[in-house]
Amino acid sequence: MKIAVLLKQTPDTETKIKIKSDASGVDETDIKWIINTYDEYAVEEALRLKEAVGTGEVVIVTAGIKRAVESMRQALAMGADRGILIDTEGLTLDSYTAAVILAKVLPNEKFDIVLAGKQAVDDDCVQVAHGVATLLDWPCVWPIEHIELSGDKKSVMVVRPVSGGTKEVFEVGLPTILCCDKGEHDPRYASLPGIMKAKTKPIQELKAADLLAGETPKVKWVNFSLPPDRQAGKILKGEPEQVCAELVKLLREEAKVI
Amino acid sequence: MVKRNGPFSASFLWEPVGTWDLFIPEELNPEQKELAKLARDFIKNEVEPLREKIEGKLEPSIVPRLLKKAGELGLLMAEIPEAYGGLGLNKITATVIAENATGWTSFMVPLMCHTGISTLPILYYGTEEQKKKYLPKLATGEFLGAYALTEAGSGSDALAAKTKATLSPDKKYYVLNGEKQFITNGGFADVFTVFAKVDGEQFTAFIIEKTFPGVSCGKEEKKMGIHGSSTVPLILQDCKVPVENVLGEVGKGHRIAFNVLNIGRWKLGAACMGGSKRIMEYSSKYLKERQQFKKPLADFQAMREKLANDNIRTYLLESVIYAYASALDNACAAIEIDKSSPDYYKVVMKKVKGLNIEASITKVYGSESSDIVSDDAVQMYGGYGYIQDYPPEQFYRDNRINRIFEGTNEINRLLIPDTLMRRALKGSIDLMGEIQKVLAGLKDGYPKTDSAKPLAPWIDQLESLKRLAIYFCGVAAQKYMEKLREKQSLVLLMADLVIEVYAIECGLQRALKIRKIKGEEASKLAELMTIAYISEKIPEMIARTRQGLFNVAEGNDQEFASYEKALNRIIQPQLAPTESLKETIAARVLEKEGYVV
Q1: Res A95: pLDDT
Q2: Pick from B38, B41, B592: which is nearest to A195 by CB?
Q3: Is there a contact between A190 and B34 if contact means CB atoms under 8 Å apart?
Q4: How many CB atoms lie within 10 A of CB B273?
Q5: B74 and A193 in contact by Cβ < 8 A?
Q6: CATH of range A2-212; options 1.20.58.100, 3.20.20.70, 3.40.50.620, 3.30.1490.190
Q7: Whether B185 contacts B113, CB under 8 Å
Q8: Using DSSP, how many helices (H) and how many strands (E) does chain B show?
Q9: Matching fold, domains B253-409 and B413-592
């Protein structure tokens, strides 16, 4: 069983985001970088699938700059076997171009299953995995909270939550791309021996520019701004009837939410 | 020429700034950073959520279970060699784990006790068979460890222990009788390093398993703090210990007792450093949230100054701890004997001994730093600081023991001048020569640092403080000779001078090194912190030394006049605008919401 995990390095969700003074992007100086939260669930599921089969390989595939290697090593410390870094130094990718380069790399490796997080917690675009699936013409299920390999190892059974608590169950042929939600398993810790072993696991480097073959981003970032500071709350006083009327009025006219 | 890494035998006291290279935490590698994250995540996700149960001892099985879980993640095996199921990592890496295994919990006490004083005696003094038998199990947490030295009548005076060991007639085992007291982890430990006197005379260490006949534990002590840790008496009643479980040699147990404490000290300092950082994360956030007089507490300078002081002190402590860890690593790396040789650890222990002044400093400076920081936190929280629902209350209470266990701070301070004097008498250091140099300078003046060098005036301040420390040691030693030991208040002052020299040296050298490897912008805060500390600390040390010299003069005005003249020649304080420096520092702490360099 050969499994890939598409892993993105994102800012820690507790990071206080600052915008560069010229509004051209996010100021990265004080950011603590982590594995995208949902990708970490994907790593956990990949390791569990490999453990269930007993043999195979889990490969971490990342499109990003050199800094991302640190997060890839974390996944290797959790137990993944090797990594492929598609170096994007000097390039600005959008979801489309990211999907293009990943779709160039994945078929060469003949993966059975490609796992990804259901979205990246930085731009929340929810597009790359779908893009790769479209370009490769592979089935894709989004989001999933449970995966099980069939007895003949030729398909997987996945569970997808839909609104109202209903679950959809799919049987999907391989190869496929599956996008992991927070599922039933917490990501394991990278243990101390795991961390030391990860140092020597191989990470192959490819150049994104060589894979783009003339494709260019379809989206351009024009401007960045932070949401306005939260205003101090208002406490309404008076009789319940009056307060309710006032509240509805404020929600409609000031907050403009109803 | 390659610079020597770290001082040896307190050589920092006379060697000019820049003689030796200093490892700084800015040089930690990615694996070490990831280990830090593992330790932090473990405490945050697995331990802190159970805090109330741990501290209330609501389920006695929680702490041993968490220790075993830490073992599964490898957090207990770092320092154990690979040959015995560990990873054989160095002291810098062990420091990273120790400082990050801290949080709003007393769990680090059982953790440090296990990996430190419980595991290390077997590693350093055990026979091959003992190591093979116990270390792999201690590495995974299958066995949990404890260390039993103290007795009701012998605390600091450990060698006065009354527990007795008698060899059986068939010479196959020793029979131990006695009671050990205040045994951390005692309630659940599987294996104890116990000290007893063979035939009531020869102080000896034994490895005792809980399952040996005649081993039992008494009631849990009700302590002021660290409620999550088990502290019980260990009762030995005709306890049969096989002769192969004698640790080290019969009659040489004192070496194990003292050297193991010696090496445990820096780890206690590391935990105090981590604890200080954790509590600063709480206090800095609280200052921004809590409103009084319609503005956040952070808008009041009195609060910002405390925060700046905490950051400065923790910066110096962090510099000291990593300096010690790397000095020991480097000393061990230079050992030419193969690690598998039975003599290897004998040489390691010599290296440890060579650094025991520095080890005492890490313990004293560490436990007193976290006292300052946790006391400030209680004050910043005001009334809430006194309430158990908020973190400062526990940090404050839990920290108090750090000045007492693993050798009280008084014992550790007394050790510093004592070791210096003993080495001087033995001739392994030329303290007399250094005193002569300082005395000669009284006439001829002292060299000054090239003013073009960064931080030149502050380097000069440190060099002057070194001379003052040496001068004071010289005066006190000459006046009282062998009676100096009885003059404990003078000896404690000598120790404080040495401690401050080391702390300032580490902070100053670190600032210079950050500037060298990362540039002026990156080193700015480290420089401001060092300057602010020197500006406040050196006048304090001068005043205390002046009083000390006055006491040495014993009412002889002429004698004091000559001391004072010398003091004024040796050092004149340099002041800095600490108010504005601290404002800059506090602003950065508030922005980062935690300790910052």
Answers
A1: 95
A2: B38
A3: yes
A4: 32
A5: yes
A6: 3.40.50.620
A7: yes
A8: 19, 12
A9: yes
Name the residue among B30, B41, B78 with its Cβ closest to that of A192: B78
Q: Report the pLDDT value the prediction gives residue B391, as an integer from 0 to 100.
A: 98
What is the pLDDT confidence band of residue B180, given thresholds at 50, 70 and 90? Answer: very high
Closest residue to B73, CB basis, from A73, A74, A189: A189
Residue of B nearest to A186 (CA): B45
Asked if the model's pLDDT at residue B8 lies above 80, the reply is: no
Q: What percent of the residues of chain A are helix, what percent strand, and what percent coil, each to the nearest 5?
A: 30, 25, 40
Tokens matching residue B134: 């116990």
Q: Pull the structure tokens for residue B351.
A: 């290296």
Torsions phi, psi for B96 (to 5 deg): -60, -45
Hey, where are the domains in chain B? Answer: 27-144, 146-247, 253-409, 413-592
Tell me: domain B146-247, CATH 3.20.20.140, correct? Answer: no
Q: Note whether A199 contacts B: Cβ–Cβ < 8 A.
A: yes
Give one DSSP letter per residue of B448-494, joined into a string: ---TTSTTHHHHHHHHHHHHHHHHHHHHHHHHHGGGGGG-HHHHHHH
Could you give the count of Cα atoms lying within 13 Å of B307 in the half-sphere of its Cβ? Answer: 33
Q: Are B97 and B78 in contact (CB under 8 A)?
A: yes
CB distance B385 to B353 below 8 Å: no
Task: Give the residue carrying structure tokens 């401690």.
Answer: B499
List, by residue number, the catalytic residues of B.
Answer: 406
Q: How far apart are the first and last CA of chain A?
A: 52
Q: Which amino acid is at B145?
A: G
List Cα–Cα distances, A18 to A29, A91, B140, B288, in angstroms.
9, 22, 43, 18
With CB atoms and an 8 Å threshold, state whether B31 touches A191.
no
Mean pLDDT of chain B: 95
* CA geometry: angle B288, B292, B295, nearest 5 deg: 55
Tokens of B112: 């440090």
Which residue intervals of chain A bear CATH 3.40.50.620?
2-212
Tell the CATH topology of B253-409. Butyryl-CoA Dehydrogenase, subunit A; domain 3 (1.20.140)
Quick one: which of B66, B146, B147 has its CA closest to B106?
Answer: B66
Residues in chain A within 8 Å Cβ distance of B30: 70, 73
**Average pLDDT of the residues in B196-224:** 96
CATH 2.30.30.60 fits B413-592, yes or no: no
Is the pLDDT assigned to residue B531 strictly greater than 60?
yes
Per CB distance under 8 Å, which residues of B are interface residues toward A? 30-31, 34-35, 38, 41-42, 72-75, 77-78, 87, 89, 97, 592
Q: B27-144 in CATH: which number?
A: 1.10.540.10
Indicate the pairing of strand B246-247 with strand B202-209. antiparallel
